[in-house]
Amino acid sequence: MADAAQAPESSDMIRYPAMGRPRDSRRDQAILDATLSLLTEAGYEQLSMEAVAGRSEVAKTTIYRRYRDKAALVAAAVRHRSPATPAQPAGKSLREDLLSLVKWLARSIAEQEVGLLGALFAGMRNDARLAQEMRQILRRDETAMTDGLLRQAAEPLAPGAAALFAEVAPAVILHRIVVAGKPCDAAFVAHLVDDILLPLMRNT
Fold this sequence. Notes:
By secondary structure, the chain is mainly alpha-helical.
């Protein structure tokens, strides 16, 4: 009679390694929401992991398991909040494609709280890690905005047209909203496209 200890286990006796507890998406959402809220209220310098833990009702150790430091936490919150990518341009007219893209960009910027933008800009000046994280996000967003425009352009574009758009359009829109305190209405969007962007981006 064969030794029972050497007999192969039946299929219903196979033991699989225990799986870890799945990550709770509700905790992730609570952490990121609390981070953005506190960042807007108090600024980057005053933001702390302890405050985020208290506001989100999540243990500080749980936050540190997800994010190595404050800069990583803030960057994750900004990524989570980032607007959807713009619709792909039709490529029939450079002007029409630019109008569509600028309208989307203006709406995306206008939806951000001024306090949040100010906190991020101040934090980037004083924290090299945050500046590095935010520049990665900005480069990603710039690529999402301009790749389709470059591929589908209905006419030749000037060298560096994508970089020109990424530098000029957000800066003008931010000035309009934050400094001038005015809306980016249809007349302003047309002005930005016709009088600034088209002359810069056309290869003429």
